[in-house]
Amino acid sequence: AMLRLRLLTWDVKDTLLRLRHPVGQSYAAEARAQGLQVQPEALGRSFQAVYGTQSRRFPNYGHGQGLSSRQWWLDVVKQSFRLSGVQNEAALTKLAEKLYRDYCSSHTWEVLPGAAETLSRCRQLGFHMGVVSNFDSRLEVILSRCNLRHHFEFVLTSEAAGFAKPDRRIFEQALRLGGARPEQAAHIGDDYSRDYRAARAAGMHSFLLRVAGHGDGPEVPPEHVLPTLSHLLARIEK
Question: Gene3D superfamilies given for it (predicted)?
Fold first, then answer.
């Protein structure tokens, strides 16, 4: 059946962009530059634990609890280093502010294979396009620096929306921004529950980017699975 699509919404992290290095490695390299020896593996584990705790205590960057996303992240970075044995508060503050800035840079992120070409082709085909991402306000800058921002009519982050995926309200905001009804829109992302299932629950079409060998996860109809981003065009060509 032909999908009558007007709007495509896109997840970003691990769909269009990915980190060039694991967090523990990036944090350890910055610590080294400031004369501190911290094991990347230990830092990576600390970060995972701290990020999990912070996300449960202050969901969506502390939106509605009086935190700014900047403060949320500075706390995560400092706590990750504290848990890895760094106690010097002045060093922690310096590290946190430097890393917060670094994660805006195109040295930190790389565009996934096929992403730029697929986005260009979708625009040539006349689709309206937007981003729907559980991200903070740095996303606009990151997309610009990675030369992807111009593909999108809007960038909707969970921080700006006030709701994070899988909450259907972030998808409803995206539909309003994109001027489309749910059945005229498709969402593309790599997370089964936050992207694929959540968009479908909001009445949209959805495609799951599932790179070969990356977890099996729940069954998804094969025509909804994208082994690479380049497979999207065959699914939606008008």
Answer: HAD superfamily/HAD-like, Haloacid dehalogenase-like hydrolase
